[in-house]
Amino acid sequence: MSKLTLKTEGDTHIVAKRRFAAPPQAVYRAHTDASLIQQWMLGPDGWTMPVCVCEPKPGGRIRYEWSNGKGGGFYLTGEFIELTPHSRIVHVERMHLPDPTPDNHVETTFEPDGAGTLMTMRMTLPDAETRAAMLSSGMEQGMEASYVRLENMI
Amino acid sequence: MHTLDNSFAALADPTRRAILARLALGETTVMELAKPFDMTQPAISRHLKVLEGAGLIIRRVEGTKRPCRLAPAGIAEIDQWLAMLRDAMSKNYDRLDALLATMKPENDQQL
After folding, report:
1. What is the 3-state secondary structure (H, E, C) of chain A?
2. The domain that contains A135 carries what CATH number?
3. What is the pTM of this model?
4. Does the beta carbon of B4 lie under 8 angstroms from any beta carbon of chain A?
5. Which of A56, A108, A126, B19 has a Cα at 20 to 30 A from B46?
C-alpha cells in the first residue's frame, strides 16, 4: 500500500499527503531539527546529507547539502517564513544544480489523525513551466535511484 | 522519455488539460471538442497539434473528419514518471517512520 499521495493542483501547485504513526509534535520536530533531518531526508538509496543548517524561526536559514559519496552532489537553500510549533511550517526553498531553480513556496501542515499525524505539503511554483521543470528533475532523481541500485547489482 | 518535456509543456495549458479530460471519455471530433470550450475550431486544432506532438493523443483520418483519442503510451509515460517521484519521496518518509518510532520515548518525556 502506498501511503504517500502526490497530486498536481491548478497550474502551479503540487500537493503531497502522508500519514505517520507518531504525534504531530514528533513529526514537526523531525522536520525542524537538523540532526533528525540528516537521518531521513536523503532521497534515493546511497545518498547522505553531510551539511544540514536548519534555523526554525521566521527568517531562519535552511541549507541542505546532499552527496552520493562519489563526488556527486547538490544543495538546497531556503528561509523560514512562519512557524506554528507542531502544526504548520511555511518556507521558501530553491535547489542549486548548481544554478538556483526558481523559488518553491512550501506550506507544510501537521494535523492530529487518531494517534498519528496527517502531513500535507503544498508546494507553489512561480508558473506552470517551473512546475513542469521541477517535476522533470524529480524524475531524474528517481532515475538516479535506479542507477544507484543498478550499480550495486553489477 | 525524450518526449517528457513536451508532455509537461503540453499539460501546462488549462485548455489542453480540459481537452485530455474530455478525451478520457472517448474518441471525438474537433467539432465536438470545440463546443464546450467556446473556442473556434482552428484554435482547438492548434491545441490538438501540440498534444499530438507530445505523443498524448492520436488522430486518424475518417473521410473529412479527423477524430482524436488519448494515446495510451504517452499517458502511461507521465504516470510512470509520477510513480518514480512518489518512489523517491516514499523512501524519505519510510525512513522517517523508522526514525519516529525511535523518537517516541524522548517525545513523551518532553510532554
Report:
1. CCCCEEEEECCCEEEEEEEECCCHHHHHHHHHCHHHHHHHCCCCCCCEEEEEEECCCCCCEEEEEEECCCCCEEEEEEEEEEEECCCEEEEEEEEECCCECCCEEEEEEEEEECCEEEEEEEEECCCHHHHHHHHHHHHHHHHHHHHHHHHHHC
2. 3.30.530.20
3. 0.64
4. yes
5. A126
